[in-house]
Amino acid sequence: MTDPRFERNEMMRTDQNHNNDEDETRYPDGTVKLRNPNIELMDQDILYHLALGSESHDLVEMFGDVKFVCMGGTPKRMQDFADYIMKEIGYKLPTGTTLQDISRYSYRYSMYKVGPVLSISHGMGVPSISILLHEMIKLMYHAKAKDPVFIRIGTCGGVGVDGGTVVISDGAYDPLLNNYYEVPVLGKLTSRPAILDKKVIRELKALADVEDPYETVTGKTMCTSDFYEGQGRLDGAFCEYTETEKLKYLEHLKEFGIVNIEMECVPFAALTHHAGIKAAIVCVALLDRFNGDQVSTPKEVLNEWQVRPQKLVAKYIKRHLQMKGKFSLDGHGSMAVKSPRRFKLVQQESQTFE
């Protein structure tokens, strides 16, 4: 009988080789090619959780110039990042306009557009970010955006690193320390390698300022599907292990090279890699899990810490924009409606879709 682990590893190798072929994921001009032939046959592709549609909106006009898709957990954080990146890149909104939450009619995610930068919330955990990624990848396809880079900006628990430390993930692992994303498809487990872009990681690390009063490190990141027991916390509603067992587990993670724990890195790395999209993750540790489970740092300090990953990502974006020259002022994120009737339908579908 064939060992199931062998079959899974073979599946991963097959997927890895398949995914390395850029012809499968990119058109010659750098635009995204979907791994789903059904989309081209549909009358309209409704992105339910973004309140957008391929026929109700002119997605090329709205998003065709996007070069960077930045995402983080909460709407407030990503609105703040949109305001911050607008100042950093010197982007000026057209007279009489303000930043708008493009996906406000979905009541699920918040999305802001600042020139070539999208700033969007992904919620908490694997299901929430996986839904968003499917629709963001499709959005890039419909918009004909060329060579977009996806970056997750978040918070995490440190494993042997102090609170306030910025962590650039160079690997994404599940709680069993597998670096692939397993999702049941038609009753069978499908494995997809969780791989981040090494070049983007190197560029981000090189941009860290040695004069910063905090460390910026690279290391492996563990993704869990649970905030409490899945992360070995002692403060959940249930805890059937001792503090000694928790510390032993954290030591095991540290020896493996894990430097932080969060709840989105594996699907983020796997789905972007499967789509042929360059991606990276930059988080700030809110505490060292060896020293406890609850965050006791004052709120004003936490607010400053959460800006640290944004600063590094802003440096990366500014550097690339400077290399490419001036960016277009067209497509500033206002609604470009193709069909008022379909536009209304998409709003209604997005508000009621479960």
From TrEMBL:
The record ties this protein, via CDD domains, to: UP_hUPP-like
Q: Where is the composition biased (Basic and acidic residues)?
A: 1-20
Query: What Pfam families does the record tag this protein with?
Result: PNP_UDP_1 (PF01048)
Which parts of this chain are annotated as the region Disordered?
1-29
The Nucleoside phosphorylase domain sits at: 67-318
Q: Which family does it belong to?
A: Belongs to the PNP/UDP phosphorylase family.
Q: What is this protein called?
A: Uridine phosphorylase 1 isoform X1
Q: Which organism is it from?
A: Nicrophorus vespilloides (Boreal carrion beetle)
For this protein's source organism, the top of the classification is: Eukaryota, Metazoa, Ecdysozoa, Arthropoda, Hexapoda
Q: Which gene encodes it?
A: LOC108566697
